[in-house]
Amino acid sequence: MTDPLIQEFVTSDNYRLQGRVWSPSAEPPNGTLVVLHGIQSHSGWYEYSCRKLCDDGYQICFFDRRGSGLNSSERGHASHWQRLVNDVIQLLTKRRSQQKHSNHKGPLILQAMSWGAKLAVVVAALRPDLIDGLALLYPGIKSFVKPTAFQTIQLKLAKQIGINRKQIEIPLKEPALFTGEESYQEFIKNDPLALHQVTVSFLLANWELDRLVDQAAERIKCPVLFMLSGQDQIVDNAATEAYFERFPTRQKKMVQYPNARHTLEFEPNRDQIVTDYVDWLTDLISSQKIS
Predict the structure, then answer these.
(1) May I ask which residue range the UniProt record assigns to the signal sequence (predicted)?
(2) Which of 55, 149, 188, 250 is most buried (CB neighbours < 10 A)?
(3) Multiple choice CATH, 5-290, 1.10.10.10, 3.40.50.1820, 3.40.47.10, 3.30.470.10
(4) Where do the structural domains in the chain lie, given as residue ranges?
């Protein structure tokens, strides 16, 4: 299996994003996947599937979100939702430019897991020119875990009085929420790079992203894949399925794994899950060639 390179991407505000990049040995790659992780996780959680996808000929560009994972500066902080969205847009813009100036003619896919799906949907709606497909795995766009109206008011008041960098605990303390596999529960519990707190400012950005996600569905015209975990206690699958139906694109597919807890990467049948994903990518490439 192919090992990743740790690379750096400097954003427009000079934040130095660190990430893992997998590049297949054969050129050109079948396609490029720009991947976004969840609120607590980071690219290191997904090395197995990324290696498998790379071995199948795909380039994977997986930069940890600012303040998360490999990025120790301003831990858990984002000044506003635009900053988070702009980071993704800048990554995609660079990859799209590299495609145009090389022989990489495969699709550029925006892939996101869990909380990262909020960013992915908003970016796909704002900049459809930058992606050829959208793959959302156990997407956290409709979640059981969300602030009440009163908590949102408290957050706004906190920012107004100047404590927007106050750290708040992420309400996902139990590793069993992510997986039923004990070995991976231990991995999550002992992961030094996992994020456990975010700032008031980040939570306000999250609240604004929730509002934008609700407005974005009808603007998604590219091919879409949803992969849901049937036993998910974080994602509201019923609400997520209803949201999926709002996408106007005809090229949309939903796959459900009835026994999965949340993080598909940690499921015993993850090889089959990766195969299902590669099958969707192959179909997408074939449809592009026909059209």
Answers:
(1) none
(2) 188
(3) 3.40.50.1820
(4) 5-290
